[in-house]
Write a structure and sequence with these properties.
- The chain is α+β, with helices and mostly antiparallel strands.
- It has helices at 11-19, 62-77, 117-134, 147-161, 169-186, 226-229, 236-250, 264-281, 286-291, 298-316; strands spanning 30-31, 38-43, 49-54, 94-96, 99-105, 110-111, 193-194, 204-207, 210-213, 221-222.
- The chain contains 10 helices and 10 strands.
- Strands 1-2-3-5-4 form a 5-stranded antiparallel sheet. The protein has a 3-stranded antiparallel sheet with strand order 6-8-9, covered by helices on one side.
- The termini are far apart.
């Protein structure tokens, strides 16, 4: 199997893998929106709905995936709402013909509304409960959010991809280097805990009357603020109100280090650059070429130059502070 390849992941192989853990699909496989992995929803005996997830080859080790699962089980045991993997004969991680996979119950729900302060209040308490559990011990196998991975390595992937148009290379890499340097200057001496890692609205669902976390695939060590800042949107005053709502609710369950507020803009810069590097790294996957076709357009890179300039300006501003 070639590196990062899903070429051999046929429908027959998927069904055989599911049956290897004594679950028998009675419906077709509905592909869900996932680019890094391959994820399918199906219905099995008794009209039970499941999701099967096949991990991208060579992205995570078995130990790293198991640590993600164990974190989900730990959260569930503490009654923190999270969609945890299904166990079969005491195991949650399985392998079939070289592919690692896991199964989840299929959970429906409505999307989280990031511009709703009442919902942000509920979310703040939920993240506080998650971090209360997360602080009890560190990950030993999962990675840590670092400038090396999110900035330097991402830049290398971009350079190797040759996707930045030649006529825009100088402008793009000039502002990219300025943002990287400023983010590196500000992101240091960081205390880290176990995180959800990718805590945005798409990974949070209203299941009935309760919020629920889904998809811990990017869980890693990092600063607590990482699981909060992605909920901020709009102008500075709006973000201040959102942040105040989140942190006040969070602190009902878990102490928060207010000095981490200065990490919001460097983390935002790191996410922007890491995202570009991620797509560039995966460009050999036909699914990325098909679904991210705009990534090779001049207009996209012109927009990124502008976005990086705006982010560089944001890095010069005073950090957000809680309302008095």
């Amino acid at each position: 199997m070639s590196k990062f390849s899903f070429i051999d992941l046929t429908p027959d192989l998927i069904l055989d893998a599911i049956e290897s853990v004594d679950i028998y699909a009675e419906s077709g496989l509905l592909a869900l929106n996932s680019y890094e992995n391959r994820v399918y929803q199906f219905v099995a005996e008794g009209a039970k709905r499941y999701v099967v997830k096949f991990y991208r080859p060579e992205r995570w080790s078995k130990a790293q995936i198991q640590e993600e699962h164990d974190f989900a089980f730990e959260l569930a045991a503490a009654e923190v709402p999270v969609v945890a993997p299904i166990k079969h004969n005491g195991q949650s991680l399985f392998e079939h013909q070289g592919y690692l996979f896991t199964l989840f119950p299929s959970v429906g729900g409505r999307l989280f509304e990031v511009d709703n302060l009442d919902q942000l209040d509920v979310l703040g308490r939920l993240i506080g409960r998650m971090h209360q559990v997360a602080k009890t011990k560190p990950f030993t196998q999962r990675p840590t959010i670092t400038c090396d991975e999110y900035l330097d390595t991402a830049k290398v992937h971009l350079q190797k991809s040759k996707l930045v148009p030649m006529g825009l290379e100088t402008s793009f890499y000039t502002i990219l280097d300025l943002v990287i340097a400023q983010a590196q200057l500000q992101y240091k001496n960081v205390d880290s805990i176990r995180l959800h890692g990718d805590c945005h609205a798409g990974n949070i669902l209203w299941a009935g009357d309760a919020l629920m976390f889904v998809d811990l695939d990017d869980s890693r060590q990092g600063p607590a603020i990482q699981d909060l800042w992605m909920m901020l949107s709009g102008d500075r005053q709006t973000q201040l109100l959102q942040l105040d709502t989140l942190v006040n609710a969070y602190e009902e369950f878990c102490d928060f280090d207010h000095s981490q507020l200065k990490l919001i803009e460097p983390l935002r810069a790191m996410r922007m650059i890491h995202y570009m590097g991620w797509v560039a790294k995966r460009w050999s996957d036909p699914a990325f070429v098909r679904n991210f076709s705009w990534f090779a357009d001049d207009k996209y890179w012109e927009q990124q130059i502008l976005a990086l300039k705006e982010q560089f300006a944001a890095l010069q501003e005073a950090p957000l502070k809680l309302l008095p």
